[in-house]
Each structure stands twice: as structure tokens, then as C-alpha cells.
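Hi support team,

I've been running sequence recovery on a batch of backbones for a student project. Most finish fine, but this one hangs at about 90% for roughly twenty minutes before it completes. I'm not sure whether the input is malformed or the queue is just slow. I've pasted the C-alpha cells below so you can try to reproduce it. Let me know if you need the job ID as well.

Thanks,
M.K.
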């Protein structure tokens, strides 16, 4: 849900080579090296749902329902079929013969407990499973019930990790976050904090052993380091390339792939505390900030007035309709009695995030308010902004965990959402009501109405732009497919 979390630099010394063999020979002995932006907070998918963290978590821990490259649920994973017997009752069929790497069996009881453990956790995913229950009805059959009709349940189960019940109870949420066990194609190896995370091939993987030895994840937010590490062969994949340096990476040895992503950069305004407890102040922010000028810092990634990310295949319409006007913004700030704004944002989490924040601060300053810039390292930032969080303005990138408007609504438009700066009891009812609509077109129409309320009546969120997802891959690596959800499917990769 939230913007992607990325990983690992320090261990990449100059002169090292991508796909390191550590003295061995042959493609089967290679180590895939992935570079991302920031270190994960946790390897427990219940705790850290960032995209960068997911790229290492998913080598070890699989999810109940698999998805294709567009994020659409399919029946090729741990759950091989689902059927709906009533508006609130589903039956899942569990793949037989699968074990966790510690020998625990993946059966109906393990699947049911994975759902309830995730629902009852203090993690981010709990909000998506409100009102969902599960129980084993046979060795490989699970009954899932929902309080109300929930046609997108398969999408939601695609973000529920398969957890080994005995081990999870033994080590707890935090212990699992430092030493995870799963059913995936790799098993956890080591995590050297501040440096790297490594996993090794699971030769007993139910889907067949992969053709290389392991994966090592490292991290750096520096665009220049992304370029040097990939072009010198220190890493094989950079999973979140800064768009300002993408042109430097295309060569005979590297392929750069780009597609419009589902992640959106938002400004969130806490409506429950000054200075944004008055709608005039929130309206002033939208009128003061020029989206196009912000995106020019990112090689003109697509400015958007829409609350919902693209590529959902739905027909929602509309967007934020306030126009840019420095004078109108200054007048509204004056009406609201606002002279200063605290502004929290990340440093090095997203391409050019500090520069964007400074540009936004300058635009607000032109509307006669003082902006207190507070840039934070991502893991410090996310601890502060989860829940209702601090007063003021927050800049954050959010990617839906499944391709539905519901994923964004559950994140920022609910009182128990991940970032609930806008939600109240009335909005909770509206979000719950639209979730019950099974017909896609009718649901889209209601989401259009909800978008208008949030962006133009409440004015508590300002969408800035949709990220262009850019991945650079060494031509030594074959089989890479760029997914809409940004995850790297390590099972399909091979080395030349």
C-alpha cells in the first residue's frame, strides 16, 4: 500500500561483479544482486508493505492468491480455486503437497490462520481484512466469511502472506521480521543491518528450484551510485531508477524498462488539527502548488488531479478542480488565519524528494506563509506518519496493494487506515458502502463521487503525479518482465 520501500548499498565494493559466483562457475551458481533505495523496516510482510521490501520478502514468503503481471488474481499459486456460495461466504481450495521451508505443512488450517493472524495484527494489512473471518472445513478447504458483500475478496487475499502458524507463534511478529520462513523459491540467509540482505535457493520449492544460487539486496538513494553500480557490474538490477539519470543507463550491457506505475505522490493534510482544520487553508495549498512545475524536476512524470492511480481498468472520472492562483491561495490562508505550515517529507525515499519539497515550500511561501521543512529518513518518517500522525502537510508516495480504488480508500480514507488524516465516521460509512457493490461499473461511479467529495469538498488530499516505474536490468539477466505492481518475479530469471 504505501509507497515502495527499497534496499541495499554498503556491501557493494568497487570492482565487484554482478551475478557474483563467489568462486563457483556456471549460471546455477550465480547470485542475483538487486539495488533499491532504502533499507526495509521489516521482512515481515504484515509489518512492512513497501514495494522495495516486498522484492526481498517475496523471495521467501508467498501470498495466498497469486497474481499476473497486471496484478489480477490467478489460480497458479497456493490457493488454486475460489468459489462464492453466498454474498458473504467463499470457499478456497489449497494447493496440496506444499510445505514451509521449516517442514510445517501448508494446509487449510495454515491458510485460515494466515488470514486471521494478518487480520488481528497491528500491521498495515489489518485494515484491509476488517470483517473477514476464515476456518478450515477440510484438509485443503477453507471457508472465508465477510460481514458484508465483498466482491474484491480475491484481490485482498493476494496481499495476505502465507505464514507458518507454529513458527510465527514461537517467534512473534518482530522475530518473523528478522528471520522469515515461507513457501517461496528462496530461504532466508542473513540481514546485515545497514548493508545487505541475502537469501539462498530453496531446492525443495514446490514450483521447481530456480536456476541460480541466491539473491542479495542492497540499497542507496543516490542516483549517481545507481548508475555506477549497474554500469560497473556491481549489481544486476536497479528497481527504482531515478528518472533524471535513466538516460545514462541505456547501453549494450543494460536495458532500461519504463511504464506508467500505480504509485501516486500525494500531499496529505491533517484536518483534525491546525493549520488544516479549516477548509480555506486546505484549499489554499491546492491553489498555491503548480503540479507541472513539480513534475519538471522528475523529467516531466505525469501530473495528475486524480485520487485514484491509473491502470485499474475502471471508469472513474473527475479530479481536483481548483486552479493554481497565488493570490487566491494567499487570500484563503489569510481567511484561515494561517501564517506557518509544518511540512514533513522523506529524504532519499523517492527520486528528487528533497528538491520537490523545497519547490513546494517556495510555492507556499509565495502565498505569504512560512513553511517549516522537516525532511526525514524514510524509516523515521513512516513511524511518524502512520495512523493519524502529525499536524501539517505530509508528502508521501502510495502504491495500491491490489489494483482497485478500494486499496487507496482503505489506506487514506478510513479512521483505522494507514494514514487517516481525512477520515471520520461519515466517510467510513461511505467507504464501507462502496466496498459492498459487486458490479464494477456501479462501483466506479460511486468512487467518482467519493473522489469529488474528498478532493473538492473536503480538500484533504492533493494528488501531485503518477510515478513512472523505471527498472534497469543487466543484459546478463534474462526473463525479466516489468509488472504493474513493481515486484520482480525472481522465479522467471536466469543468467547467461
Amino acid at each position: 500500500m504505501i509507497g515502495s520501500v527499497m534496499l541495499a548499498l554498503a556491501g557493494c565494493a568497487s570492482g565487484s561483479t554482478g551475478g557474483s559466483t563467489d568462486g563457483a562457475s556456471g549460471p546455477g551458481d550465480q547470485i542475483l544482486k538487486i539495488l533499491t533505495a532504502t533499507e526495509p523496516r521489516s521482512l515481515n510482510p504484515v509489518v512492512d508493505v513497501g514495494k522495495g521490501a516486498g522484492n526481498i520478502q517475496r523471495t521467501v514468503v508467498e501470498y495466498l492468491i497469486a497474481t499476473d503481471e497486471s496484478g489480477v488474481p490467478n489460480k497458479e499459486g497456493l490457493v488454486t480455486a475460489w468459489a462464492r456460495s453466498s454474498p458473504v461466504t467463499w470457499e478456497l481450495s489449497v494447493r496440496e503437497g506444499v510445505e514451509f521451508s521449516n517442514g510445517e505443512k501448508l494446509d487449510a488450517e495454515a491458510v485460515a490462520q494466515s488470514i486471521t493472524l494478518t487480520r488481528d495484527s497491528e500491521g498495515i494489512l489489518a485494515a484491509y481484512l476488517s470483517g473477514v473471518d476464515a476456518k478450515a472445513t477440510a484438509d485443503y478447504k477453507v471457508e472465508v466469511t465477510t460481514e458484508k458483500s465483498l466482491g474484491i475478496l480475491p484481490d485482498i487475499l493476494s496481499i495476505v502472506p502465507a505464514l507458518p502458524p507454529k513458527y510465527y507463534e514461537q517467534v512473534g511478529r518482530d522475530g518473523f521480521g528478522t528471520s522469515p520462513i515461507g513457501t517461496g523459491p528462496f530461504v532466508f540467509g542473513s540481514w546485515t543491518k545497514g548493508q545487505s540482505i541475502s537469501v539462498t535457493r530453496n531446492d525443495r520449492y514446490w514450483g521447481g528450484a530456480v536456476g541460480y544460487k541466491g539473491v542479495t539486496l542492497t540499497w542507496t538513494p543516490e542516483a549517481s551510485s545507481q548508475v555506477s553500480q549497474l554500469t560497473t557490474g556491481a549489481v544486476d538490477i536497479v528497481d527504482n531508477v531515478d528518472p533524471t539519470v535513466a538516460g545514462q543507463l541505456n547501453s549494450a550491457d543494460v536495458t532500461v524498462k519504463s511504464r506508467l506505475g500505480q504509485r501516486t505522490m500525494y500531499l496529505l493534510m491533517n484536518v483534525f488539527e491546525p493549520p488544516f482544520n479549516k477548509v480555506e487553508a486546505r484549499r489554499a495549498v491546492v491553489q498555491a502548488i503548480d503540479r507541472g512545475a513539480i513534475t519538471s524536476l522528475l523529467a516531466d512524470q505525469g501530473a495528475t488531479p486524480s485520487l485514484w492511480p491509473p491502470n485499474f481498468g475502471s471508469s472513474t472520472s473527475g479530479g481536483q478542480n481548483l486552479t493554481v492562483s497565488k493570490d487566491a491561495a494567499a487570500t484563503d490562508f489569510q481567511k484561515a488565519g494561517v501564517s506557518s505550515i509544518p511540512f514533513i517529507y522523506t529524504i532519499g525515499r523517492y527520486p528528487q524528494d528533497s528538491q520537490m519539497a523545497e519547490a513546494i515550500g517556495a510555492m507556499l511561501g509565495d502565498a505569504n506563509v512560512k513553511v517549516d521543512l522537516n525532511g526525514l529518513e524514510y524509516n523515521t518518517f513512516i513511524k511518524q506518519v502512520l495512523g493519524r500522525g502529525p499536524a501539517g502537510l505530509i508528502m508521501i508516495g502510495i502504491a495500491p496493494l491490489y489494483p482497485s480504488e478500494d486499496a487507496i480508500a482503505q489506506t487514506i480514507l478510513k479512521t483505522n487506515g494507514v494514514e487517516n488524516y481525512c477520515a471520520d465516521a461519515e466517510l467510513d460509512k461511505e467507504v464501507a458502502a462502496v466496498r459492498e457493490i459487486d458490479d464494477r461499473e456501479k462501483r466506479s461511479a460511486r468512487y467518482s463521487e467519493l473522489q469529488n467529495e474528498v478532493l473538492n469538498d473536503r480538500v484533504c488530499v492533493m494528488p501531485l503525479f503518477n510515478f513512472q516505474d523505471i527498472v534497469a536490468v543487466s543484459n546478463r539477466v534474462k526473463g525479466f518482465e516489468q509488472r504493474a505492481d513493481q515486484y520482480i518475479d525472481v522465479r522467471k530469471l536466469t543468467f547467461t
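--
Follow-up from support: It reproduced on our side and the slowdown came from queue contention, not your input. The longest strand covers residues 254-269. No action needed from you.
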